Amino acid sequence: MVIKNLENKIRLTGIVCTAFLAGCIIISVSSIWTARTMVADAHRKVYVLDSNVPILVRQTTMEETLDVEAKSHVEMFHHYFFTLAPDDKYIRYTMEKAMYLVDETGLAQYNTLKEKGFYSNIMGTSAVFSIFCDSIRFDREKMEFTYYGRQRIERRSNILMRELVTAGQLKRVPRTENNPHGLLIVNWRTLLNRDIEQKTKNSY
């Protein structure tokens, strides 16, 4: 009887010790998990000074901002590629900036226009080209975009408006100073480029 009571006490002690050890392990694991979560959350918080007043902002992942960054990247490229002035240094500057954002398909279009004397004609006629983005459709799953815009071409005697539609895909690349969005336009092509309105400038 004494031996049986002793065995029961030993068994009870073992159960209590096991439960205590399991509780300690659960508490330790949950503490570590909570600490890691808090540290990771803290790393995503950044303070920005606005007139010496710290403002808390949150860091986001590219997946969260992909749509916005993709459209911004596409619009930036079209701005550089289609905003032209009768200044060879300015044209070289904007083309250089644009080529960081697109693959060889963009360079091929640039070379074709150059061979046809397009940029020389801009210099000769003092034409000024401006681009206006109407909308950008972006398919997140296929990483495909379609750009809809209008180009304004101002010459000495007239102002021409053209409708422009282009398309292509986006590929992820490392972010750099020249490519802040970490995206590259590939298989870029022009779907539509036609005159929609022409106005004669008044000459006095």
In short:
The chain has 2 domains: 2-56; 62-200, Roll (Nuclear Transport Factor 2, Chain: A). Helices cover 47% and strands 33% of the residues. The protein has helices spanning 2-43, 62-82, 88-99, 104-115, 118-125; strands at 45-50, 53-58, 128-139, 144-154, 158-172, 183-200.
List the helices and strands and how they pair.
Elements: H1 2-43, E1 45-50, E2 53-58, H2 62-82, H3 88-99, H4 104-115, H5 118-125, E3 128-139, E4 144-154, E5 158-172, E6 183-200
Antiparallel strand pairs: 1-2, 3-4, 4-5, 5-6
Helix pairs in contact: 2-3
What is the terminal separation in angstroms?
Answer: 124 Å
Give the CA-based shape.
Answer: rod-shaped
Query: Roughly how many Å is the radius of gyration?
Result: 31 Å
Count helical runs.
5
CATH architecture label of the largest domain? Roll
CATH superfamily of the largest domain: VirB8 protein
**Total domains:** 2
Top-tier CATH class of the largest domain: Alpha Beta
Sheet/helix structural class: alpha+beta
CATH topology of the largest domain: Nuclear Transport Factor 2, Chain: A
Biggest sheet: strand arrangement: 3-4-5-6
What share of residues is helical? 40-55%
The biggest sheet amounts to:
4 strands, antiparallel
Question: How many strands appear in the DSSP assignment?
Answer: 6
Strand content: 25-35%
